Amino acid sequence: MEEKDKCPTCNSPLGEITETANGRKLRRCSAGTWNKDIRQTDGCAFVKWLPFEQEKLDEKCPECGSPLVIQMTRFGKKMKKCSAGGWDKETKKPTGCPYVEWINGTTEKLDEICPECGKPLVLFTTTSGKKMKKCSTAGWDREAKKATGCTYVEWLKYVPKEENTGEEFLPPEPEEEK
Ligand SMILES: [Zn+2]
Ligand SMILES: [Zn+2]
Ligand SMILES: [Zn+2]
């Protein structure tokens, strides 16, 4: 068994990779199980948080032409960044290409029609994972600071991916090394 598959606390093998509601991956010690009733871990409470996998995009960095990747922060915010960029822990400065673009929610086209004006609806997902349907004609006039077009909005109920597994009671993630 490799060192990285072992629990540093009790030497038991680590369990399968599981995912939290906001997409973070972790492995629990196989000598521990989450007890929903008492909201505590029975046995070994070791949890290993896995680093984010970067998702490669088909887009090129506008600054240097290297491929862009999607990266998620530990708070669940997503950003596009240049794969040629990095972070020097020693000097606490970015290295390579500094291009970063924060993603502020995503919109998807829906096969539904706005009940108010008959135009197509889009599904908007906020950075925190909330979803709403809104009219594709809706916009925001920055100068007048008011909504333009159709104002139809329907918030969708947040549906957890799986039954509450008590993830919010997990031990806090380790601080990133500064
Ligand atoms: Zn353990
Ligand atoms: Zn770049
Ligand atoms: Zn509409």
Quote the average pLDDT: 81
Assign a percent range to the helix content. under 10%
Order of helices and strands: EEEEEEEEEEEEEEEEE
Largest sheet: 4 strands, antiparallel
What is the end-to-end distance? 31 Å
Task: Describe this protein's structure.
This protein is an all-beta fold and 178 residues long. The chain has three domains: 3-51, no CATH class; 55-102, no CATH class; 106-155, no CATH class. 0% of the residues lie in helices and 44% in strands. It has strands spanning 14-19, 25-29, 32-35, 40-43, 47-49, 55-60, 67-72, 78-82, 85-88, 93-96, 100-102, 106-113, 120-125, 131-135, 139-141, 146-148, 153-155. A four-stranded antiparallel sheet has the order 6-7-8-11, with no helix packed on it. It has a four-stranded antiparallel sheet with strand order 12-13-14-17, with no helix packed on it. Strand 9 (85-88) and strand 10 (93-96) form a beta hairpin. Bound molecules: zinc ion (3 copies). One zinc ion is lined by residues 114, 116-117, 119, 135, 137, 150, 152. One zinc ion is lined by residues 61, 63-64, 66, 82, 84, 97, 99.
Provide key terms for this protein.
single chain, four-stranded antiparallel beta sheet, binds zinc ion
Summarize, please.
The protein has about 180 residues and is mainly beta.
List the helices and strands and how they pair.
Elements: E1 14-19, E2 25-29, E3 32-35, E4 40-43, E5 47-49, E6 55-60, E7 67-72, E8 78-82, E9 85-88, E10 93-96, E11 100-102, E12 106-113, E13 120-125, E14 131-135, E15 139-141, E16 146-148, E17 153-155
Antiparallel strand pairs: 1-2, 2-5, 3-4, 6-7, 7-8, 8-11, 9-10, 12-13, 13-14, 14-17, 15-16
The structure holds zinc ion (ZN) (3 copies).
